[in-house]
Amino acid sequence: MTHFEAERAGVSLLCRGPEVRDEMLGGGKVKDLYELHGEGESIRGIAERLGVSRNTVRKYVRGEEVPKPKPRLPRGSKLEPYRDYLREQMGVGVDNCVVLLRELRKQGYSGSYTILKEYLHPLRQPRLPKATMRFETDPGEQAQVDFGLFRYLTPEGATRQVYCFVMVLSWSRALYVEFVARADLATFLRCHWNAFGYFGGIPKRCLYDNAKVVVLGRDEAGEVSYQPEFLDFSLRLGFALQLCRPYRAQTKGRVENGVKYVRANFWPTARFVDLADLNRQGREWLDTVANVRLHGTTNERPLDRLVVERADLLAIPGLEKVQAYLREERKVGRDGFVSWERGAYGVPWQWAGQRVQVQGGDSVVEIWANGERIALHARATKPGQRLPIPGQWQGLAAESQRPPKEALAVQVPTLQVEARPLAVYDAYVTGGER
Question: Is the dihedral of CA 38, 44, 49, 52 positive or negative?
């Protein structure tokens, strides 16, 4: 408003006092300001026409460059209270945003996944791109199997390790994991049985690398010599064995990725007191995270695809067909106890010094000999626990009257692998190597 306009409106401009107001202009006003200045308009005239202060006009026309706004003070981030925790986790290799978000939620974080992802992005190590051609299978056609080694620290600071058995159905991407103390043949067979039960059926073939629990070796012509007991186990259940090419473990990329997924998504936050506790947590993770997530490749939940795939899986036979394979052979000590896993289990004294078979379940442990169960125990719940049975020493004579060792010696038959013609194995073990 000019003085003339102000007088006509009855408004005095004298009361406004000196102009000290300074402000930043938008793009349109900046353009108009420089055009008016180029036309010879005075600072007062420009200020009046644009409705800004004279100080603002002076700043634009006398400056060497267009003024820039002062940087804004950064807003407080919802991640601020957790930055030390995040740096600590990144330092030990935990950089999976899904895992970290889950842990932050437990600590009270209410921000979004995007904020967390953007914060972690500059802290990640760059990764080189890899190219792989994916091989797809039909429903019920294939599962891939592997072991992973997982290390942990005890409360005393000692380093310990467990093995993780991983099986992935290739079509549905349904995942099964089981943590075990040993990666021996008996454990390998038991994990297969448990995995088939979890999936509700058996795939037509399973793909492995050249591990000793599967392959004993190869002859000069490259022919595979399978582990006889494992091969017979597969034939009884009806699934064929398939091997990766030597030194080509990426052929079973789905299970390799499955092991990595367990290591990145489940293992960093696992806290457990024993294997049973760890496997309870693992099963919960399978049911609430791994198999209900939207899979990045199929864009579907593995659990939903598993419902479809079950129609193409082979039926699971009765337990009696494979029960002998699910037992581990152990020697009974002279004290009449069998050491297995974390405990010692009592048997009738007549079996002292003899070999028996141990069959472990989630909550019970069975001791077998000569095809009969000779003891049944609740599973040990703490290391070194000794579990006797009622009447364990009943009928044992005094030391001076104890029968000679020959009288106590009882021969326990070892597992007999069913003999089959070679043509039968050729008919079942189809696919060979890939």
Answer: positive
Extract the runs of DSSP E, i.e. beta strands, from 196-341.
205-208, 215-218, 224-226, 240-243, 328-331, 337-340
Hey, how many other C-beta atoms are within 10 angstroms of the C-beta on 184? 13
Q: Is 136 helix (H, G, I), strand (E, B) or coil?
A: coil
- Euclidean distance between CA atoms 392 and 412, whole angstroms: 19
Which residues are within 8 A (CB) of 271 and not within 5 positions of it... i.e. 6 or more apart? Answer: none
For 89-102, write each residue's pLDDT tens digit. 877 777 788 888 88
In whole angstroms, what is the distance from residue 217 CA to residue 211 CA?
9
How far apart (Å, rounded) are the C-alpha atoms in residues 183 and 149? 9
Distances (CA, A) of 332 to 161, 283, 401: 27, 33, 22
Q: What is the DSSP letter of 80?
A: G
Say which residues have a Cβ less than 8 Å from residue 314's Cβ, sequence separation at least 6. Answer: 140, 201, 202, 203, 204, 237, 238, 239
280/361 Cα distance (integer angstroms):
13
**What is the C-alpha separation between 143 and 277, in angstroms, rounded?**
27
Can you give the pLDDT at residue 17?
42
Taking phi over 0 as left and psi of -120 to 50 as alpha, with beta for the rest, 318 belongs to beta
Per DSSP bridges, beta strands 224-226 and 343-346 are unpaired
Tokens 């060979």 sit at which residue? 432
For residue 16, name the pLDDT band (cuts at 50, 70, 90): very low
Report yes or no: 150 and 259 within 8 Å, Cβ to Cβ. Answer: no
